[in-house]
Predict the 3D structure of the following.
Amino acid sequence: MGAAACITLPVLSTGCSNEAEVLAAGNALRKKIIPMDVGNLKITIVYDNNRFNKELKTDWGFSCLVEGLDKTILFDTGRYDTILMANLNALDIDPKKIDLVFLSHEHPDHIGGLEKILASTSRIDILMAQSFLSGIGKEAKTRGSKEVRVNQPVMVTKSGLSSGEMKSFVKNEQALFIDTTGGVIVITGCAHPGIVDIIERSQKLLQKDILLVLGGFHLLQDHAGSIREIASRFQEMNVRYVAPTHCSGPETRTIFKEMYGENYLDSGVGRIITARDMPGRAV
């Protein structure tokens, strides 16, 4: 898959601000989306403040590479470009293989490595929420790439879609939903709109159970009782596997591991997740 392949998406002016709009968007998207073979899935965490591979650098931030779709997606770009590029190199990942950069939200620990990625390749799409304020679009254009702003849920690959911009008093955010033959995979940056709300949106859009929720859950400052309630909600919503990273917090990781047992995927920078890590998946 070459990085020269670009997507063509409309710049949307109105978001899904109520349940009726979300359901309407889901009805349209479900007619088009094609579940990917979960056996082809490969997710590599390339930036995180939690360590998994001791050979890689850790730092506050998040980024992961998603392979197996019709486009290779870099989800977020961490905080420091030097660390991102060093980890990509150590993992033998060529930035030129990236087709799409998916930016969850406009915080430095999620967009800091973007300029270096743009300098390392060309003609890639950068998908961001409508509310982004930074001059990313101008930088992308000078590099031969393209900025795509979204507000409503929209397909970004044949099997992947953006949640659309979800509101938060901290920072509006979008999540990545991947429809697979084993269920939906939800990837979040910091889950500022609420991790449960993000999962609920994926279910409204795709009307399928969740195979995996991976990324920042933004529970670093929550107390144990609140975290347990959220983990219970995950189970009530039939989330099969969990991989909390980044801003989830150590207590969150401990509690989810206790409650999910073998369906908890210990994750951090360097962790590679494939279908083999989720043997209980539906097929």
In short: The first strand starts at residue 42 and ends at 48. The helical segments are 19-30, 81-90, 108-111, 114-120, 136-142, 195-206, 224-236, 250-260. The two ends are 26 Å apart (CA to CA).
